[in-house]
User: What shape does this take?
Amino acid sequence: MKYTIKKCITLFISLFFASILTFTAFHIIPGDSALSALGMDATEEQLEEYREIMGLNKSFPERYADWLKNALKGDFGYSSQYQMRMRVSTLIKERLIVTLWLAVLSFMLIVLVSIPLGILSARKKNGILDSLISLVTQVFMSIPSFFLGMLITLIFGVILKWFTPGRYVSPGENFGLSLRFMVFPAIAVAIPKIAMMVKFLRSSLLGEMELDYVRTAKSKGMKNISILFKHILKNALIPVITFLAMMLADILAGTILVEQVFNLPGLGRLLVSSIANRDYAVVQAIILYIVSVVIIINFLVDLIYQWIDPRVRRN
Amino acid sequence: MKIKGKTCSFNYILGLVITSLVILIVLIGFFYTPYDPNKMNAALKNSPPSLSHLLGTDNFGRDILSRVMKGAGTTYIIAVAIVFIGALFGTIAGALTGYFGGWFDEVLMRFNDVLTSFPSILLALVFVSVFGPGTYNIVYALGIIFIPSYARMVRSEFIVLKERDFVKNAKLMGAGNFRIMFVHILPNTKRVLIPSLLIGFNNAVLAEAGLSYLGLGVQPPQASLGRMLSEAQSYMLDSPWCAIAPGLMIILTVLGFSLISGGLENE
Assistant: This one.
Protein backbone atom coordinates (compact mmCIF):
# COMPACT_ATOMS: atom_id res chain seq x y z
CA MET A 1 0.00 0.00 0.00
CA LYS A 2 2.80 2.37 0.94
CA TYR A 3 4.45 1.51 -2.36
CA THR A 4 1.28 2.32 -4.31
CA ILE A 5 0.88 5.67 -2.57
CA LYS A 6 4.49 6.55 -3.22
CA LYS A 7 4.07 5.70 -6.89
CA CYS A 8 0.86 7.75 -7.10
CA ILE A 9 2.68 10.78 -5.72
CA THR A 10 5.48 10.29 -8.26
CA LEU A 11 2.86 10.01 -11.00
CA PHE A 12 1.31 13.36 -10.14
CA ILE A 13 4.66 15.09 -9.75
CA SER A 14 5.78 13.75 -13.15
CA LEU A 15 2.55 14.82 -14.87
CA PHE A 16 2.76 18.26 -13.29
CA PHE A 17 6.39 18.60 -14.27
CA ALA A 18 5.64 17.49 -17.84
CA SER A 19 2.79 20.01 -18.16
CA ILE A 20 4.97 22.87 -16.91
CA LEU A 21 7.75 21.86 -19.27
CA THR A 22 5.39 21.66 -22.25
CA PHE A 23 3.81 24.99 -21.44
CA THR A 24 7.04 26.85 -20.71
CA ALA A 25 8.84 25.49 -23.77
CA PHE A 26 6.38 27.25 -26.05
CA HIS A 27 6.51 30.49 -24.13
CA ILE A 28 10.16 31.18 -24.63
CA ILE A 29 9.59 31.37 -28.37
CA PRO A 30 10.91 34.72 -29.49
CA GLY A 31 8.51 37.08 -31.26
CA ASP A 32 5.01 38.43 -30.75
CA SER A 33 2.48 35.64 -31.24
CA ALA A 34 -0.35 38.13 -31.87
CA LEU A 35 1.67 39.69 -34.67
CA SER A 36 2.55 36.34 -36.20
CA ALA A 37 -1.07 35.16 -36.02
CA LEU A 38 -2.65 38.24 -37.59
CA GLY A 39 0.14 39.29 -39.92
CA MET A 40 1.96 42.59 -40.37
CA ASP A 41 -1.11 44.47 -41.68
CA ALA A 42 -3.05 44.13 -38.44
CA THR A 43 -3.96 47.35 -36.69
CA GLU A 44 -2.98 48.02 -33.09
CA GLU A 45 -6.65 47.55 -32.00
CA GLN A 46 -6.88 44.15 -33.68
CA LEU A 47 -3.63 43.07 -32.04
CA GLU A 48 -4.87 44.24 -28.66
CA GLU A 49 -8.17 42.42 -29.13
CA TYR A 50 -6.37 39.22 -30.11
CA ARG A 51 -4.13 39.48 -27.05
CA GLU A 52 -7.19 39.98 -24.87
CA ILE A 53 -9.01 36.95 -26.31
CA MET A 54 -5.97 34.70 -26.16
CA GLY A 55 -5.10 35.88 -22.64
CA LEU A 56 -1.69 37.12 -23.70
CA ASN A 57 -1.89 40.10 -21.34
CA LYS A 58 -2.03 37.97 -18.23
CA SER A 59 0.97 36.98 -16.15
CA PHE A 60 2.79 33.72 -16.79
CA PRO A 61 1.41 31.69 -13.81
CA GLU A 62 -2.12 32.86 -14.61
CA ARG A 63 -1.77 31.77 -18.19
CA TYR A 64 -0.38 28.42 -17.15
CA ALA A 65 -3.28 27.90 -14.75
CA ASP A 66 -5.82 28.79 -17.46
CA TRP A 67 -4.16 26.52 -19.98
CA LEU A 68 -3.97 23.60 -17.56
CA LYS A 69 -7.58 24.06 -16.43
CA ASN A 70 -8.79 23.94 -20.03
CA ALA A 71 -6.41 21.13 -20.94
CA LEU A 72 -7.82 18.97 -18.15
CA LYS A 73 -11.25 19.51 -19.66
CA GLY A 74 -9.82 18.46 -23.02
CA ASP A 75 -9.92 21.97 -24.46
CA PHE A 76 -6.71 23.12 -26.11
CA GLY A 77 -8.08 26.11 -27.97
CA TYR A 78 -8.05 26.56 -31.74
CA SER A 79 -5.65 25.43 -34.41
CA SER A 80 -4.19 28.13 -36.62
CA GLN A 81 -3.01 26.11 -39.63
CA TYR A 82 -6.36 25.54 -41.31
CA GLN A 83 -8.58 28.13 -42.96
CA MET A 84 -11.53 27.17 -40.79
CA ARG A 85 -11.05 27.62 -37.08
CA MET A 86 -10.74 23.99 -36.02
CA ARG A 87 -10.78 23.02 -32.38
CA VAL A 88 -7.51 21.35 -31.41
CA SER A 89 -9.41 18.67 -29.53
CA THR A 90 -11.49 17.62 -32.57
CA LEU A 91 -8.37 17.56 -34.72
CA ILE A 92 -6.60 15.34 -32.24
CA LYS A 93 -9.54 13.04 -31.64
CA GLU A 94 -9.72 12.13 -35.35
CA ARG A 95 -6.00 11.41 -35.56
CA LEU A 96 -5.60 9.67 -32.22
CA ILE A 97 -7.48 6.58 -33.41
CA VAL A 98 -5.13 6.10 -36.36
CA THR A 99 -2.03 6.32 -34.19
CA LEU A 100 -3.54 4.10 -31.53
CA TRP A 101 -4.54 1.49 -34.07
CA LEU A 102 -1.02 1.48 -35.51
CA ALA A 103 0.60 1.35 -32.06
CA VAL A 104 -1.59 -1.50 -30.81
CA LEU A 105 -1.01 -3.56 -33.94
CA SER A 106 2.77 -3.00 -33.76
CA PHE A 107 2.80 -3.91 -30.09
CA MET A 108 0.94 -7.14 -30.75
CA LEU A 109 3.33 -8.05 -33.54
CA ILE A 110 6.30 -7.40 -31.26
CA VAL A 111 4.98 -9.60 -28.47
CA LEU A 112 3.80 -12.41 -30.73
CA VAL A 113 7.00 -12.67 -32.75
CA SER A 114 9.74 -11.82 -30.30
CA ILE A 115 8.82 -14.06 -27.38
CA PRO A 116 8.94 -17.36 -29.35
CA LEU A 117 12.11 -16.25 -31.17
CA GLY A 118 13.80 -15.25 -27.92
CA ILE A 119 12.99 -18.58 -26.30
CA LEU A 120 14.19 -20.45 -29.39
CA SER A 121 17.42 -18.48 -29.43
CA ALA A 122 18.13 -19.12 -25.75
CA ARG A 123 17.28 -22.83 -25.93
CA LYS A 124 19.68 -23.44 -28.78
CA LYS A 125 22.38 -21.28 -27.20
CA ASN A 126 25.41 -20.90 -29.50
CA GLY A 127 23.86 -23.20 -32.09
CA ILE A 128 23.57 -22.31 -35.74
CA LEU A 129 19.99 -21.08 -35.34
CA ASP A 130 21.00 -18.89 -32.39
CA SER A 131 23.94 -17.34 -34.29
CA LEU A 132 21.72 -16.74 -37.27
CA ILE A 133 19.03 -15.11 -35.14
CA SER A 134 21.60 -12.91 -33.40
CA LEU A 135 23.15 -11.70 -36.66
CA VAL A 136 19.74 -11.02 -38.17
CA THR A 137 18.63 -9.13 -35.05
CA GLN A 138 21.80 -7.00 -35.24
CA VAL A 139 21.03 -6.13 -38.85
CA PHE A 140 17.37 -5.32 -38.18
CA MET A 141 18.29 -3.18 -35.19
CA SER A 142 20.37 -1.04 -37.56
CA ILE A 143 17.55 -0.26 -39.99
CA PRO A 144 15.72 3.00 -39.31
CA SER A 145 12.00 2.25 -39.20
CA PHE A 146 11.15 4.88 -41.82
CA PHE A 147 13.63 3.40 -44.31
CA LEU A 148 12.12 -0.01 -43.62
CA GLY A 149 8.76 1.58 -44.35
CA MET A 150 10.02 2.85 -47.69
CA LEU A 151 11.34 -0.61 -48.59
CA ILE A 152 8.05 -2.24 -47.58
CA THR A 153 6.14 0.27 -49.70
CA LEU A 154 8.38 -0.50 -52.64
CA ILE A 155 8.27 -4.29 -52.34
CA PHE A 156 4.74 -4.99 -51.08
CA GLY A 157 2.97 -1.88 -52.28
CA VAL A 158 4.50 -1.12 -55.67
CA ILE A 159 5.89 -4.44 -56.90
CA LEU A 160 3.60 -7.04 -55.31
CA LYS A 161 0.58 -4.70 -54.98
CA TRP A 162 -0.56 -6.25 -51.67
CA PHE A 163 -1.68 -2.83 -50.48
CA THR A 164 -2.19 0.63 -51.95
CA PRO A 165 0.56 2.98 -50.78
CA GLY A 166 -0.77 6.21 -49.28
CA ARG A 167 -4.28 4.94 -48.68
CA TYR A 168 -5.81 4.70 -45.24
CA VAL A 169 -8.97 2.78 -44.38
CA SER A 170 -10.41 3.30 -40.91
CA PRO A 171 -11.15 0.13 -38.91
CA GLY A 172 -14.76 1.21 -38.40
CA GLU A 173 -15.36 1.41 -42.13
CA ASN A 174 -14.00 -1.98 -43.17
CA PHE A 175 -12.10 -3.86 -40.51
CA GLY A 176 -10.57 -6.53 -42.73
CA LEU A 177 -9.29 -4.10 -45.32
CA SER A 178 -8.08 -1.71 -42.63
CA LEU A 179 -6.13 -4.52 -40.99
CA ARG A 180 -4.62 -5.56 -44.30
CA PHE A 181 -3.44 -2.03 -45.00
CA MET A 182 -2.30 -1.27 -41.48
CA VAL A 183 -0.24 -4.42 -41.05
CA PHE A 184 2.50 -3.07 -43.33
CA PRO A 185 3.19 0.14 -41.40
CA ALA A 186 2.93 -1.90 -38.21
CA ILE A 187 5.63 -4.25 -39.50
CA ALA A 188 7.86 -1.26 -40.23
CA VAL A 189 7.42 -0.02 -36.67
CA ALA A 190 7.76 -3.48 -35.15
CA ILE A 191 10.76 -5.09 -36.85
CA PRO A 192 13.56 -3.05 -35.21
CA LYS A 193 11.81 -3.44 -31.85
CA ILE A 194 11.36 -7.18 -32.34
CA ALA A 195 15.10 -7.41 -32.87
CA MET A 196 15.81 -5.52 -29.66
CA MET A 197 13.30 -7.58 -27.76
CA VAL A 198 14.70 -10.94 -28.94
CA LYS A 199 18.19 -9.89 -27.86
CA PHE A 200 16.94 -8.74 -24.47
CA LEU A 201 14.79 -11.82 -23.87
CA ARG A 202 17.63 -14.15 -24.82
CA SER A 203 20.04 -12.61 -22.30
CA SER A 204 17.34 -12.51 -19.64
CA LEU A 205 16.57 -16.22 -20.16
CA LEU A 206 20.24 -17.21 -20.21
CA GLY A 207 20.81 -15.27 -16.99
CA GLU A 208 18.00 -17.17 -15.27
CA MET A 209 19.22 -20.53 -16.57
CA GLU A 210 22.42 -20.22 -14.56
CA LEU A 211 20.63 -19.79 -11.23
CA ASP A 212 20.52 -22.40 -8.48
CA TYR A 213 16.82 -23.20 -8.69
CA VAL A 214 17.29 -24.44 -12.23
CA ARG A 215 20.01 -26.83 -11.07
CA THR A 216 17.74 -28.04 -8.29
CA ALA A 217 14.91 -28.65 -10.72
CA LYS A 218 17.29 -30.53 -13.01
CA SER A 219 18.58 -32.72 -10.20
CA LYS A 220 14.98 -33.52 -9.33
CA GLY A 221 14.82 -35.03 -12.78
CA MET A 222 12.60 -32.45 -14.44
CA LYS A 223 12.77 -32.23 -18.19
CA ASN A 224 14.52 -29.17 -19.64
CA ILE A 225 11.47 -28.08 -21.52
CA SER A 226 9.19 -28.11 -18.49
CA ILE A 227 11.82 -26.30 -16.41
CA LEU A 228 11.84 -23.63 -19.08
CA PHE A 229 8.10 -23.14 -19.18
CA LYS A 230 7.26 -23.75 -15.51
CA HIS A 231 10.12 -21.96 -13.79
CA ILE A 232 12.50 -19.97 -15.95
CA LEU A 233 10.02 -18.17 -18.17
CA LYS A 234 8.06 -16.85 -15.20
CA ASN A 235 11.14 -15.16 -13.78
CA ALA A 236 12.73 -14.14 -17.04
CA LEU A 237 9.60 -12.34 -18.23
CA ILE A 238 9.60 -9.92 -15.28
CA PRO A 239 12.35 -7.63 -16.61
CA VAL A 240 10.84 -8.06 -20.07
CA ILE A 241 7.68 -6.29 -18.90
CA THR A 242 9.63 -3.14 -18.02
CA PHE A 243 11.43 -3.39 -21.32
CA LEU A 244 8.12 -3.67 -23.16
CA ALA A 245 6.79 -0.62 -21.34
CA MET A 246 9.84 1.40 -22.32
CA MET A 247 9.26 0.13 -25.81
CA LEU A 248 5.71 1.52 -25.83
CA ALA A 249 7.20 4.99 -25.63
CA ASP A 250 9.49 4.07 -28.50
CA ILE A 251 6.60 2.70 -30.53
CA LEU A 252 4.73 5.98 -30.13
CA ALA A 253 7.85 7.80 -31.30
CA GLY A 254 8.27 5.32 -34.15
CA THR A 255 4.74 5.95 -35.37
CA ILE A 256 5.59 9.65 -35.88
CA LEU A 257 8.08 8.71 -38.59
CA VAL A 258 6.25 5.73 -40.06
CA GLU A 259 2.98 7.66 -40.44
CA GLN A 260 4.93 10.05 -42.61
CA VAL A 261 6.16 7.23 -44.86
CA PHE A 262 2.77 5.56 -45.29
CA ASN A 263 0.85 8.81 -45.45
CA LEU A 264 -1.37 7.85 -42.50
CA PRO A 265 -3.51 10.65 -41.05
CA GLY A 266 -2.30 10.09 -37.47
CA LEU A 267 -1.00 12.20 -34.61
CA GLY A 268 2.58 12.07 -35.88
CA ARG A 269 1.69 13.60 -39.23
CA LEU A 270 -0.37 16.25 -37.50
CA LEU A 271 2.53 16.98 -35.15
CA VAL A 272 5.04 17.39 -37.96
CA SER A 273 2.76 19.57 -40.08
CA SER A 274 1.91 21.68 -37.04
CA ILE A 275 5.58 22.21 -36.31
CA ALA A 276 6.18 23.23 -39.90
CA ASN A 277 3.21 25.66 -39.74
CA ARG A 278 4.09 26.97 -36.27
CA ASP A 279 0.69 25.88 -34.99
CA TYR A 280 1.79 25.80 -31.38
CA ALA A 281 -1.57 25.07 -29.76
CA VAL A 282 -1.66 21.74 -31.60
CA VAL A 283 2.00 20.95 -30.96
CA GLN A 284 1.56 21.61 -27.24
CA ALA A 285 -1.53 19.45 -27.05
CA ILE A 286 0.02 16.49 -28.89
CA ILE A 287 3.22 16.61 -26.88
CA LEU A 288 1.24 16.73 -23.66
CA TYR A 289 -0.89 13.80 -24.83
CA ILE A 290 2.03 11.57 -25.74
CA VAL A 291 4.09 12.46 -22.69
CA SER A 292 1.14 11.83 -20.35
CA VAL A 293 0.48 8.47 -21.97
CA VAL A 294 4.13 7.51 -21.48
CA ILE A 295 4.10 8.59 -17.83
CA ILE A 296 0.84 6.78 -17.08
CA ILE A 297 2.08 3.59 -18.75
CA ASN A 298 5.25 3.72 -16.65
CA PHE A 299 3.11 4.14 -13.55
CA LEU A 300 0.91 1.16 -14.42
CA VAL A 301 3.96 -0.97 -15.14
CA ASP A 302 5.42 -0.13 -11.73
CA LEU A 303 2.16 -1.30 -10.15
CA ILE A 304 1.94 -4.50 -12.19
CA TYR A 305 5.57 -5.14 -11.45
CA GLN A 306 5.19 -5.16 -7.71
CA TRP A 307 2.08 -7.28 -8.04
CA ILE A 308 3.89 -10.06 -9.91
CA ASP A 309 7.22 -9.67 -8.16
CA PRO A 310 6.69 -8.90 -4.46
CA ARG A 311 10.46 -8.59 -3.97
CA VAL A 312 10.25 -5.09 -5.48
CA ARG A 313 8.12 -3.82 -2.60
CA ARG A 314 10.66 -4.82 0.00
CA ASN A 315 13.48 -2.94 -1.67
CA MET B 1 40.78 -15.00 -34.61
CA LYS B 2 43.43 -13.04 -32.73
CA ILE B 3 44.31 -9.36 -32.80
CA LYS B 4 47.11 -8.10 -30.50
CA GLY B 5 47.00 -11.44 -28.69
CA LYS B 6 43.27 -11.20 -27.91
CA THR B 7 40.71 -13.53 -29.32
CA CYS B 8 38.00 -11.70 -31.16
CA SER B 9 34.62 -12.92 -32.27
CA PHE B 10 33.52 -13.10 -35.87
CA ASN B 11 30.98 -10.34 -35.26
CA TYR B 12 33.68 -8.01 -33.93
CA ILE B 13 35.87 -8.52 -37.00
CA LEU B 14 32.88 -8.05 -39.28
CA GLY B 15 32.09 -4.81 -37.45
CA LEU B 16 35.66 -3.56 -37.89
CA VAL B 17 35.59 -4.35 -41.61
CA ILE B 18 32.23 -2.64 -42.22
CA THR B 19 33.16 0.40 -40.15
CA SER B 20 36.55 0.84 -41.85
CA LEU B 21 34.80 0.67 -45.19
CA VAL B 22 32.16 3.31 -44.43
CA ILE B 23 34.68 5.60 -42.73
CA LEU B 24 36.97 5.29 -45.74
CA ILE B 25 34.10 6.30 -48.04
CA VAL B 26 33.32 9.31 -45.87
CA LEU B 27 36.97 10.38 -45.58
CA ILE B 28 37.43 10.23 -49.34
CA GLY B 29 34.21 12.22 -49.67
CA PHE B 30 35.72 15.13 -47.74
CA PHE B 31 38.43 15.57 -50.40
CA TYR B 32 37.10 14.03 -53.57
CA THR B 33 33.71 13.20 -55.04
CA PRO B 34 33.21 11.94 -58.62
CA TYR B 35 30.87 14.89 -59.37
CA ASP B 36 29.85 18.07 -57.60
CA PRO B 37 27.20 16.74 -55.16
CA ASN B 38 24.93 19.77 -55.67
CA LYS B 39 25.35 20.17 -59.42
CA MET B 40 22.04 19.68 -61.21
CA ASN B 41 21.77 18.20 -64.67
CA ALA B 42 18.33 18.27 -66.29
CA ALA B 43 19.39 15.84 -69.02
CA LEU B 44 20.16 13.11 -66.49
CA LYS B 45 17.06 13.22 -64.30
CA ASN B 46 16.37 9.97 -62.41
CA SER B 47 18.78 7.92 -64.49
CA PRO B 48 19.44 4.42 -63.14
CA PRO B 49 22.92 3.28 -62.04
CA SER B 50 25.36 3.23 -64.95
CA LEU B 51 29.11 3.32 -65.51
CA SER B 52 29.30 7.10 -65.51
CA HIS B 53 26.98 7.42 -62.47
CA LEU B 54 27.62 4.31 -60.40
CA LEU B 55 24.60 4.76 -58.12
CA GLY B 56 22.43 6.66 -60.58
CA THR B 57 21.13 10.21 -60.33
CA ASP B 58 18.23 11.82 -58.46
CA ASN B 59 15.29 13.93 -59.62
CA PHE B 60 17.55 16.94 -60.23
CA GLY B 61 20.14 14.88 -62.08
CA ARG B 62 22.57 15.04 -59.18
CA ASP B 63 25.03 12.16 -58.81
CA ILE B 64 23.87 9.89 -55.96
CA LEU B 65 27.31 8.47 -55.17
CA SER B 66 28.76 11.94 -54.68
CA ARG B 67 25.77 12.97 -52.58
CA VAL B 68 26.03 9.85 -50.41
CA MET B 69 29.75 10.49 -49.84
CA LYS B 70 29.20 14.13 -48.90
CA GLY B 71 25.90 13.48 -47.13
CA ALA B 72 27.32 10.72 -44.95
CA GLY B 73 30.10 13.14 -44.01
CA THR B 74 27.52 15.72 -42.93
CA THR B 75 25.63 13.11 -40.95
CA TYR B 76 28.84 11.91 -39.26
CA ILE B 77 29.94 15.41 -38.30
CA ILE B 78 26.51 16.10 -36.82
CA ALA B 79 26.56 12.78 -34.95
CA VAL B 80 30.06 13.36 -33.55
CA ALA B 81 29.08 16.85 -32.40
CA ILE B 82 25.95 15.48 -30.70
CA VAL B 83 27.87 12.73 -28.90
CA PHE B 84 30.58 15.23 -27.93
CA ILE B 85 28.07 17.57 -26.27
CA GLY B 86 26.18 14.72 -24.60
CA ALA B 87 29.26 12.85 -23.37
CA LEU B 88 31.17 15.94 -22.20
CA PHE B 89 28.41 17.47 -20.09
CA GLY B 90 27.01 14.08 -19.12
CA THR B 91 30.40 12.94 -17.84
CA ILE B 92 30.93 16.12 -15.84
CA ALA B 93 27.44 15.92 -14.32
CA GLY B 94 27.75 12.19 -13.63
CA ALA B 95 31.20 12.57 -12.08
CA LEU B 96 30.14 15.39 -9.76
CA THR B 97 26.90 13.75 -8.63
CA GLY B 98 28.41 10.28 -8.29
CA TYR B 99 31.43 11.51 -6.37
CA PHE B 100 29.83 14.02 -4.04
CA GLY B 101 26.29 12.64 -3.74
CA GLY B 102 23.92 14.59 -1.49
CA TRP B 103 20.70 16.46 -2.28
CA PHE B 104 22.11 17.90 -5.50
CA ASP B 105 22.59 14.34 -6.75
CA GLU B 106 19.05 13.40 -5.67
CA VAL B 107 17.44 16.33 -7.51
CA LEU B 108 19.49 15.93 -10.68
CA MET B 109 18.79 12.21 -10.88
CA ARG B 110 15.02 12.63 -10.47
CA PHE B 111 15.14 15.19 -13.26
CA ASN B 112 17.17 12.69 -15.26
CA ASP B 113 14.58 9.96 -14.68
CA VAL B 114 11.79 12.11 -16.06
CA LEU B 115 13.80 13.13 -19.12
CA THR B 116 14.98 9.63 -20.00
CA SER B 117 11.46 8.23 -19.87
CA PHE B 118 10.52 10.32 -22.93
CA PRO B 119 11.30 9.18 -26.44
CA SER B 120 14.26 11.29 -27.57
CA ILE B 121 12.75 12.11 -30.96
CA LEU B 122 9.79 13.72 -29.20
CA LEU B 123 12.05 15.95 -27.10
CA ALA B 124 13.98 16.84 -30.22
CA LEU B 125 10.70 17.77 -31.93
CA VAL B 126 9.78 20.06 -29.03
CA PHE B 127 13.18 21.72 -29.25
CA VAL B 128 13.01 22.10 -33.01
CA SER B 129 9.49 23.50 -32.93
CA VAL B 130 10.56 26.11 -30.38
CA PHE B 131 13.90 27.14 -31.89
CA GLY B 132 13.17 26.30 -35.52
CA PRO B 133 14.57 23.64 -37.84
CA GLY B 134 18.17 23.59 -39.01
CA THR B 135 21.47 21.76 -38.69
CA TYR B 136 22.77 23.63 -35.62
CA ASN B 137 19.49 23.39 -33.79
CA ILE B 138 19.27 19.62 -34.10
CA VAL B 139 22.88 19.34 -32.90
CA TYR B 140 22.05 21.38 -29.78
CA ALA B 141 18.74 19.63 -29.27
CA LEU B 142 20.04 16.08 -29.56
CA GLY B 143 23.27 16.93 -27.72
CA ILE B 144 21.28 18.14 -24.71
CA ILE B 145 18.95 15.15 -24.94
CA PHE B 146 21.94 12.79 -24.84
CA ILE B 147 23.33 14.27 -21.61
CA PRO B 148 21.17 12.31 -19.11
CA SER B 149 22.13 8.84 -20.35
CA TYR B 150 25.85 9.59 -20.05
CA ALA B 151 25.35 11.28 -16.68
CA ARG B 152 23.53 8.26 -15.33
CA MET B 153 26.14 5.80 -16.56
CA VAL B 154 29.19 7.76 -15.36
CA ARG B 155 27.50 8.39 -12.04
CA SER B 156 26.92 4.70 -11.35
CA GLU B 157 30.55 3.92 -12.23
CA PHE B 158 31.79 6.69 -9.92
CA ILE B 159 29.68 5.42 -7.03
CA VAL B 160 31.37 2.02 -7.26
CA LEU B 161 34.87 3.23 -8.02
CA LYS B 162 35.10 5.91 -5.32
CA GLU B 163 35.08 3.19 -2.65
CA ARG B 164 38.04 1.36 -4.16
CA ASP B 165 41.48 1.24 -2.56
CA PHE B 166 43.28 3.23 -5.20
CA VAL B 167 41.02 6.17 -4.49
CA LYS B 168 41.67 5.92 -0.76
CA ASN B 169 45.40 5.75 -1.50
CA ALA B 170 45.24 8.85 -3.63
CA LYS B 171 43.36 10.64 -0.86
CA LEU B 172 46.01 9.67 1.67
CA MET B 173 48.68 10.97 -0.68
CA GLY B 174 46.88 14.30 -0.50
CA ALA B 175 45.30 14.43 -3.96
CA GLY B 176 42.48 16.94 -4.32
CA ASN B 177 38.92 15.94 -5.17
CA PHE B 178 39.13 17.08 -8.77
CA ARG B 179 42.42 15.30 -9.33
CA ILE B 180 40.93 12.09 -7.94
CA MET B 181 37.81 12.45 -10.06
CA PHE B 182 39.37 13.20 -13.40
CA VAL B 183 42.87 11.70 -13.16
CA HIS B 184 42.23 8.61 -11.05
CA ILE B 185 38.61 7.55 -11.43
CA LEU B 186 37.65 8.75 -14.91
CA PRO B 187 40.18 6.64 -16.86
CA ASN B 188 38.75 3.57 -15.14
CA THR B 189 35.30 4.20 -16.60
CA LYS B 190 36.53 3.71 -20.16
CA ARG B 191 35.42 0.07 -20.13
CA VAL B 192 31.79 1.23 -20.20
CA LEU B 193 32.29 4.69 -21.63
CA ILE B 194 33.80 3.65 -24.97
CA PRO B 195 31.05 1.19 -26.01
CA SER B 196 28.48 3.77 -24.96
CA LEU B 197 30.16 6.40 -27.15
CA LEU B 198 29.79 4.05 -30.12
CA ILE B 199 26.14 3.33 -29.30
CA GLY B 200 25.59 7.05 -28.81
CA PHE B 201 27.04 7.72 -32.24
CA ASN B 202 24.61 5.20 -33.72
CA ASN B 203 21.64 6.76 -31.97
CA ALA B 204 22.77 10.17 -33.16
CA VAL B 205 23.03 8.96 -36.77
CA LEU B 206 19.52 7.50 -36.55
CA ALA B 207 18.13 10.62 -34.88
CA GLU B 208 19.67 12.92 -37.49
CA ALA B 209 18.27 10.72 -40.23
CA GLY B 210 14.82 10.79 -38.63
CA LEU B 211 14.68 14.54 -38.09
CA SER B 212 16.12 15.38 -41.51
CA TYR B 213 13.68 12.91 -43.03
CA LEU B 214 10.85 14.89 -41.45
CA GLY B 215 12.37 18.00 -43.02
CA LEU B 216 13.36 19.49 -39.67
CA GLY B 217 17.11 18.89 -39.73
CA VAL B 218 19.58 19.53 -42.51
CA GLN B 219 18.09 21.92 -45.06
CA PRO B 220 18.37 21.70 -48.86
CA PRO B 221 20.46 21.82 -50.97
CA GLN B 222 22.90 20.41 -48.40
CA ALA B 223 22.94 16.60 -48.44
CA SER B 224 22.70 14.37 -45.40
CA LEU B 225 21.60 10.75 -45.28
CA GLY B 226 18.22 11.62 -43.77
CA ARG B 227 17.69 14.55 -46.11
CA MET B 228 18.41 12.33 -49.14
CA LEU B 229 15.87 9.75 -47.96
CA SER B 230 13.30 12.47 -47.53
CA GLU B 231 13.88 13.71 -51.08
CA ALA B 232 13.86 10.17 -52.46
CA GLN B 233 10.49 9.35 -50.90
CA SER B 234 8.40 10.94 -53.67
CA TYR B 235 10.36 9.16 -56.40
CA MET B 236 10.28 5.73 -54.77
CA LEU B 237 8.17 4.35 -57.65
CA ASP B 238 10.37 5.46 -60.55
CA SER B 239 13.82 5.63 -59.06
CA PRO B 240 14.19 3.52 -55.91
CA TRP B 241 18.01 3.77 -56.15
CA CYS B 242 17.77 7.31 -54.77
CA ALA B 243 16.60 5.84 -51.46
CA ILE B 244 18.51 2.56 -51.41
CA ALA B 245 22.01 4.10 -51.40
CA PRO B 246 21.63 6.49 -48.44
CA GLY B 247 19.51 3.91 -46.56
CA LEU B 248 22.17 1.27 -46.99
CA MET B 249 24.81 3.70 -45.80
CA ILE B 250 22.87 4.30 -42.56
CA ILE B 251 22.39 0.57 -42.02
CA LEU B 252 26.09 -0.23 -42.60
CA THR B 253 27.21 2.58 -40.29
CA VAL B 254 24.92 1.57 -37.46
CA LEU B 255 25.54 -2.15 -37.93
CA GLY B 256 29.34 -1.74 -37.98
CA PHE B 257 29.46 0.33 -34.82
CA SER B 258 27.04 -1.87 -32.91
CA LEU B 259 28.98 -5.02 -33.80
CA ILE B 260 32.19 -3.37 -32.56
CA SER B 261 30.64 -2.15 -29.34
CA GLY B 262 29.11 -5.60 -28.75
CA GLY B 263 32.58 -7.10 -29.18
CA LEU B 264 34.12 -4.60 -26.74
CA GLU B 265 31.50 -5.33 -24.12
CA ASN B 266 32.03 -9.09 -24.32
CA GLU B 267 35.77 -8.84 -23.74
Summary: The first helix of chain A runs from residue 2 to 25. Chain A has a mean pLDDT of 83.
